[in-house]
Design a protein that fits this description.
mainly beta
Length: 112
């Protein structure tokens, strides 16, 4: 059974940084696809970043390019999302996903 557990969220001011982690069990992170998405209250789910081709290729939504970095640690079977230069519009619940499963989410709140 796949289990994904996110952590690392918190409250920061604009311009701050956070690193989100997603510990995977029952699923090898270094597979073809893992991703982060986010959802803010009253807004649609938004794909943020994905890592594919066994970690060789990454994708980002335009609003986070140059600020967020997705990566994975094979030894720890963990997916990461480094969030830099945070903006108030980045406030949301962040989830990791294998495409078929997702974790419980971790809240990111950015204040001005």
């Amino acid at each position: 059974q796949v289990q994904l557990v996110e952590s690392g969220g918190g409250s920061v001011q604009e311009g701050g940084s956070l690193r989100l982690s997603c510990a995977a069990s029952g699923y090898t992170a270094r597979r073809n696809y893992m991703a982060w998405f986010r959802q803010a209250p009253g807004k649609e789910r938004e794909g943020v970043a994905a890592i594919v081709a066994r970690g060789r290729v990454t994708y980002y939504t335009d609003s986070v390019k140059g600020r967020f970095t997705i990566s994975q640690d094979d030894a720890k079977n963990t997916l990461y999302l480094q969030l830099n230069s945070l903006k108030t519009e980045d406030t949301a619940m962040y989830y990791c996903t294998t495409g078929a499963d997702r974790g419980q989410g971790t809240q990111v709140t950015v204040s001005s």
